[in-house]
């Protein structure tokens, strides 16, 4: 009795096979691993590897496209060779290795031989990250079509209700993993870590998803003894491809008018394939035809992790007492999904039905595409507001100059067509813009002193600071900032007005050997208050305060800190703003996320249900692969547009995507208007009845022939 109870408990728990709990936990950990890693990618490319926005976006969408192309390979391996269980285990090992390699690629100390906090050989990091991402794409894509189907295999006949609920729990596990990871990994990223020098902790942020993937693999393997495992039954996808290929070849071979036309082009496969298979493929191709416009939706949807994250970096993440990182804004989608799915199912759809409107699956998908298009219109409006707050930087044929007087008296600086009187320890309000041909001369003077001409070859397309501290003493410094500091960080540089050099340590970053009356390079810091110390070659009196702190840094600003020595010998700090902080709040992105999430709910979930309902029982995996292929093609579309890089204004690119999807939405609505819904089960039942009749006829023939045969013998 004890033994039978134990077996029963292992096989069944609250009406569900115990094995599915291992599968759900496995999926939660795997999705945490994938989305946690993916949330970091665009900033890792642009901040750590130093790629520009277009290249970062292109590589990001190439990776996502690969993740949705490899499911075809995973389905082929599972159906034809290893079976679902062995495929999941094998590719999960590849997946885990890929996550680990990606984490290793983000370790600065791997090639930081001079311990200055920056990699000395970026190509090593690029190579490792590309290898890691390639393995991840193979792993996550390869197991994608297998895990949910393997979970469905665990249920017995008569457990349809439990199986349907399992898929709801499975989808919830996906979103729970996505939500938690996109909150946690950006928090880990902004921590400081390192062996010789400390910087953004990408190794930890990538390492946690790698660890979760290892946990996912272990949990799945632990449940091995409880799974129902089926041997591979042959690849349906291969049969579909062969049948279509034969039909096309046969039709081409009989293209002359001597051969009568057939009702459907697939009917040309009758010479080799049975009527049931041909009919099933007809159902599949009708749905696949509707898939043609769908990639455009995914082209917009997957830009949450690229263009929208980059947009967030030019905004302020301050929500009251909370500060949000740009890559954490992606959690809005996961939160809204959890909220909107039950609202749509329990409130919106029933209300529409009560109003008597026939809101079919294809109509829902059309509305979803329209909502996604409107989301990008909102994104464009937000971008216009952001652009209004951005400083004006010099064009390629222009030069910008500002004057900073770090001396003890007033200075007069003459530019072509204007004269500036600059009091001591002040700077001009703005950078003054000159055409290259206009900046013919600059002169410095003060009362009772001769005029000193500034001789300097100003670099086109750059900002410059003219440091003056006496009538005949000046220095021109190229600023090195031609755009807002990236990713919402804040640039800080120091100017030394001492007579000797000094070093400054600020928030564990070191400004080395800032020479007298010269400026350091900018270094970049996250938001918050930063402390710094001055280490001068001439000792600073002990009575002096040498532990300074910055004002509270916001997002996307740049400052110049001038250090001068007072009469007492103590250092004194003067702060000048070079670039004002971001003022447009990230909260303005919430409407575009809301519209896109509503579009996802009525498009993506409905599309999967529609595909499942219109597919024959043995062709559902084929349509699943086709659906995932539309996601891959959508990312390739973004890759092409971002790779072209011909659109200089970001708001214009958003409008372009919105317009393209709107056109595709109209085309899809027309295609949907002519689609006739079918019931594959009824069609297959007709074939089953015909097969039974044929079998009965054969049995009747044999029963009448048997006595005659015996008599003749």
UniProtKB/TrEMBL annotation:
Domain of life: Eukaryota
Keywords associated with the record: Cell membrane, Glycoprotein, Membrane, Peptide transport, Protein transport, Symport, Transmembrane, Transmembrane helix, Transport
GO CC, one annotated term: apical plasma membrane
Membrane-spanning segments: 6-25, 57-76, 88-107, 127-147, 168-188, 208-227, 283-301, 334-353, 365-384, 593-613, 625-648, 654-675
Pfam family, one: PTR2
Entry's localization field: Apical cell membrane; Membrane
Catalytic activity: glycyl-L-glutamate(out) + 2 H(+)(out) = glycyl-L-glutamate(in) + 2 H(+)(in); an L-amino acid tripeptide(out) + H(+)(out) = an L-amino acid tripeptide(in) + H(+)(in); glycyl-sarcosine(out) + H(+)(out) = glycyl-sarcosine(in) + H(+)(in); L-alanyl-L-leucyl-L-alanine(out) + H(+)(out) = L-alanyl-L-leucyl-L-alanine(in) + H(+)(in)
Subunit record text: Interacts (via extracellular domain region) with trypsin.
Name assigned to this protein: Solute carrier family 15 member 1
Gene Ontology biological-process annotations: protein transport
Record bears the keyword Transport: yes
PROSITE patterns the UniProt entry points to: PTR2_1 (PS01022), PTR2_2 (PS01023)
SUPFAM superfamilies, A to Z: MFS general substrate transporter
